[in-house]
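Extended Data, panel c. Modelled sequence:
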Amino acid sequence: MKTACSFPFGAAPPRPLRFKGKFRDTMRRLKTPKSTLLFAVEQGIGFVPVPGLNEGYSALTSMLTDAELSPRAASLLMLSSDRSDEIRTLIEGSFQDDDWSVKAAAIQITAAWKEQS
């Protein structure tokens, strides 16, 4: 007895293509203006003629999406663009923190500041 759902010669049913999943993820990332801008930066950063920019961006995004990175370290990285005395004191105090990710973020910020000077 054949049904409408049976497959000839014992063939397996077709699986959804990987393309559909990637397409769905891409469309999900284009829903808001902020996520669209981040997607465009992520896709186009390799075309900028600055050596090491792509590696720095990918290192930063992998750090921020890491499950082991504490929220305090992520917020410290977000504050790194401000060079006020309060932030400088906060970063200096982060070297004594018990969490390794906070210490690593403080080291990365200090190294980036010394490179820019």
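The helical segments are 18-29, 33-44, 53-64, 71-78, 85-94, 100-116. This feature is highlighted in the accompanying rendering.
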